Amino acid sequence: MLPSLKDQRFLITGGTGSFGQTMVGRLLSAGAAEVRVLSRDEAKQDDLRRRLRDDRVRFYVGDVRDLDSVTKAARGVNYVFHAAALKQVPSCEFFPLEAVRTNVLGSANVIEACERNDVASVVFLSTDKAVQPINAMGISKALMEKVAQAHARNNPNAATNVSCVRYGNVMYSRGSVIPLFIEQIRAGQPITVTEPRMTRFLMSLAESVDLVEHAFTHANPGDIFIRKAAASTIADLGEALCNLFGVPFKMNILGIRHGEKMAETLASREELEHAQDFGDFFRVPLDSRDLNYALYFDEGEIEREQVFDFNSSNAPRLTVPEVESLLLTLPEVRAQLSAADRLPDSVTA
Ligand SMILES: O=c1ccn([C@@H]2O[C@H](COP(=O)(O)OP(=O)(O)O[C@H]3O[C@H](CO)[C@@H](O)[C@H](O)[C@H]3O)[C@@H](O)[C@H]2O)c(=O)[nH]1
User: Domain UDP-glucose 4-epimerase CapD C-terminal, which positions (predicted)?
Assistant: First the structure.
């Protein structure tokens, strides 16, 4: 934890979700003075309250769609991590306006609430699905990034520094494919694979939250930080899980779902042309030109390098044994293997 974040007050929107909870735990163990959780579901808050038993955590029932509820939760806070979102691809396809209300207008409310409370820095959680988006969830997250960047461009003297972090698939997040495959394997069923050759970035939460802390303290307004990750095909992911549980690899092929891509893109070629590479992550700075393009003629792009999108089909590809090793780093997978009496001796539960 960066020393400058110690003894500070934080608000996490969507703090009961997979990413939000990881961030709450991280900030508590690192000495935060207070961590507030804003979310809609009081039952999930109660579960988290019982699990954490830490009086530095305060719970606010509310919704980012409601400016008043975010403004109250952000009172006296130094840093905000905005993870609240509608994130299921199929449901956003059926209800795109709901995605706009939460992911776009809700994010604008978060900025407004931060400004009203002189919050130093807010970091928005984005996704690879926001790059060259084809589904409503990704389109709404792309617009969320634009809202963050436009705030930075239009308000050079703003109280709040707004930046984004962008990630690929979070392994074992709620409702995602890994817990589903494990449930199917443990029930003795074949796993349901949409499209075996489809690729996804695989990222563990534990190794990803660092980037949020970095963004809190190092971001320039409008920056997008992109965590690099390795990728796997869905068939290899399924095979790795079957191997770990010691069952033969059998799949039922379902076909691609509404709004899915064969590969996800973490950073587009256009972004990479002016991004900085920091090893584990890219920083894409704000294009801070105003609308008077004529003024910039002399400074136009000088030479466009041969740069390619960073996507899950050209990213470093994990082999099946590598996916197995990565899965074994997840405490949830180790617990499931232990319950099935399949945890390798070399690994502790
Ligand atoms: O029964 C299933 C369900 C899913 N898949 C595939 O598994 C992959 C991952 O699916 P899933 O875990 O549902 O995640 P995504 O739909 O890729 O979306 C997740 O990952 C995104 C980051 O890319 C986040 O933004 C989203 O919020 C999060 O839901 C995809 O290729 C699916 O086609 C299957 O093969 N079989």
Answer: 287-334
